Amino acid sequence: MKLSQSLLIIFTLCVGLNSVFADEIQLSGGTTVEVPLADLLAPYHGYDNTNNVEVVLYGTLPNTCYRIDNTRIEKVSGTNSFRIRQFAVKKTDGVCGEENTMPEHLKMAAPFTSVVSIGSLAPGDYSFNYNDGTSHVAQKSVNVKEAHKTTVDDYPYAAVSNVSTTDVIAKMDKIAVTLSGVFTSSCAYLDADSVAVDKQKDVYVVLPVVKIKHGVLCAQSLTPFLQQIDMESPKSSGHYLVHVRSMNGKSVNRVVEALE
Description:
It contains 1 helix and 19 strands. The longest helix has 25 residues, at 3-27. Helices cover 10% and strands 51% of the residues. Residues 1-27 have low confidence and may be disordered. By secondary structure, it is mainly beta. The chain has one helix spanning 3-27; strands at residues 30-35, 39-41, 47-48, 53-61, 66-75, 81-91, 110-119, 124-131, 137-145, 159-164, 168-170, 175-185, 188-189, 195-200, 203-208, 211-212, 220-231, 238-245, 251-259. Strands 1, 3, 5, 6, 8 and 9 form a 6-stranded mixed β-sheet that branches. The chain has a 5-stranded mixed β-sheet with strand order 11-19-18-15-14, with no helix packed on it. It has a 3-stranded antiparallel β-sheet with strand order 2-4-7, with no helix packed on it. A hairpin with a 5-residue loop joins strand 8 and strand 9.
């Protein structure tokens, strides 16, 4: 064996050992735990068998010694049911070793939101079960219809990249939302009449349908947009999902909590 080959093998082994050691350091001083969810949110209507079905998980980590980790999706064999389990890594070393004596600024709860991609599903009703921290298993349902077109969506939605709104409102207040993104044509635009809102219990499905100017010369260019909309008040306390459809079958999601 040539000297250069020997050095290469030794270097590779050293890198591999360092990687393993680094993983051990990262994993030591912490443990993986399942955390309950305050809510699982998804529109009941609106998905078809060409869409990527998404559900939004909302919860609160006990303190800053926790960080969100993997989400496990378990299909219940022979049924249209899924079990959704959210995990977090809890640090157990340093100041996190004794939670009772932690500084006050580290004891603050940390809200989290996770968007979970289920993938495309055959037409039918589906249930998603999750741990809400009580003795029973909570459940939300989603209906998937059969697509009547070969396109991903029925309408040309704007390329929305961000949804801005307040995180907490009073239950009788309207939800003010600002959509932002880009148009790819100088003839494209949005206005208040082209943005439809379908309230489905605890989900506001926002459909930003692009309009096109006629009788003018259009240019292919990236043009940023902002569109503000006011949605009806929740009227009941709880968690609400603002689910905005976007171009190419995507969606942008925000969770709002309505208080008494």
